[in-house]
Amino acid sequence: MAQFQSYNKILVCQEDGISNIVVNGQVVAYELKCRYPSYRGTYLSCIEALELYVDGARVEDERISLHLNGKIFPISQLKELFSEYWFILDKGTLRIWQPGGLAEGEHTVEIRMRHRIPYTGYFGEYLVLDSRDEKQLEVLRGVELDG
Amino acid sequence: MADIKLGVTLYSFTYEYVTGKYSLEDCVRKAAELGVDGYEIVATQMIPSYPYISDEFLAKVSEFEYKYGIRPVAYGANTDRGKLHDRDLNDEELVNDTIRDIQNAHKLGCKVVRAQYLLSPENLVRIAPYAEEYDVKVGIEIHNPETPSTPAMQRYLEAIEKSGSTHIGFVPDLGCFATKPNIKNYDGALKKGANKEMLDYAVELKRADVPLREAEQRLKDKGADPHVMSAFYDMYGYLTFYNEPDLDGLRRIMPYVFHFHGKFHAMRNGEETSIPYPEVLEAIFNTDFSGYIVSEYEGHSLRADGLVDYDAFEAVRQHLEMERRILAELGQKQK
């Protein structure tokens, strides 16, 4: 099943870094980018779990939303989204609501994703993969978004 | 004598595409540089507006044709029966998704759709009228460990023949005719530290057709390491091989074969390392087949693993060179 695990390294997008989000002069959240770790895209309903760890600590799902296809989804809703397709080259944005955002400098970002491969399952069991990727991401200075 | 055209599936450039080295345009340009007549596109991989096709995408495909002279000739569909979290797609949904794929292929000008085995024989028959209306042929992929003669494929054959439709059939993947262990499987396991004696024993068990569970037990009893076991499971699964390629089975289904995936994993000294292309191409050559064999490179990770020293483009170039050589020899014989 190597063909399915070869692309885990694209899960966390390092080059995009972390952006703190400013609203009315206050940092209210931060964002980072991720990609679906495979050779093809998928329906969001095939994502069975998406966990984010920053500097070793799990971020509660309730504080995270995924921005994709011009829409915004809570993590708990992903399994219902069988009409939302995540194109393999598209970056999704994870927004984490956190007053003050993240401190300047580098942070360890880890994403763990459990996902089902929908065209497997000859005998009823679909292949379900646990993918993970961890990278050092830098909080970008001077790109604080207002919104 | 068959009328065989050669193509490339852009899937061959998966590693370059996913990692951003090649854009879609680069993939098409590279395919054109290889001198092929057309390309296959895996819809779930390269169409940004999937599961639909946007006008913007169609315009791009036409622009690339104008620039590079080639178009998509086959549409690789995925039968994603498991996309819902709580149940399988029902027949109506599977048929609906496949009709959408037929429409997409039609928009792209593809005459062939590759479907997968999760589309049952009954559902394949259900989509036949749509395939005929759009004049797009839908073939079930025959992929390892299936071969044309395995019971699952025979059930399709029966349904296809009974339907009387000219637009439903098969897309064999030439990997199903492998007669040797796959290089990634065998050399890769050795490289990871598998015990060679034990690995050869696994190959021996497969060659002797020892049933999976029994062979598994024998290996475990001998204390086979995890690398051997992992390679062993692949040998009985999607990287399997047979003592003899199922060419009689292939000849039997040829009236319903629309297209081939010219699967290959590694080229050495001008030959594929595990699939007997000279025999397989000769069998196809001596039929009335008219269509494409598209080179499908599956060795994306071999270079990173240090097992080969060429990239996907060079791999496909060598594969096409081999096919052209074999076909030219067959043409000479004919005269």
Map the helices and strands.
The complex is a heterodimer of chains A (147) and B (335).
Chain A: H1 2-5, E1 19-23, E2 26-34, E3 42-43, E4 47-54, E5 57-59, E6 64-68, E7 71-74, E8 85-86, E9 92-97, E10 105-117, E11 127-139, E12 145-146
Parallel strand pairs in A: 1-12
Antiparallel strand pairs in A: 1-2, 2-9, 3-8, 4-5, 4-10, 6-7, 6-9, 10-11
Chain B: E1 3-9, H1 14-18, H2 24-33, E2 38-42, H3 43-46, H4 55-68, E3 72-76, H5 91-108, E4 112-115, H6 121-134, E5 137-142, H7 151-163, E6 168-172, H8 183-191, H9 196-207, H10 212-221, H11 226-235, H12 247-253, E7 260-264, E8 267-268, E9 271-272, H13 277-285, E10 290-297, H14 312-334
Parallel strand pairs in B: 1-2, 1-10, 2-3, 3-4, 4-5, 5-6, 7-10
Antiparallel strand pairs in B: 8-9
Features:
heterodimer, A: 147 residues, mainly beta, Immunoglobulin-like, six-stranded mixed β-sheet, four-stranded antiparallel β-sheet, 1 helix, 49% strand, elongated, B: 335 residues, alpha/beta, TIM Barrel, 2 domains, eight-stranded parallel β-sheet, two-stranded antiparallel sheet, globular
Task: Give a concise summary.
The complex is a heterodimer of chains A (147) and B (335). Chain A has one helix spanning 2-5, and strands at residues 19-23, 26-34, 42-43, 47-54, 57-59, 64-68, 71-74, 85-86, 92-97, 105-117, 127-139, 145-146. With 147 residues, chain A is an all-beta fold.
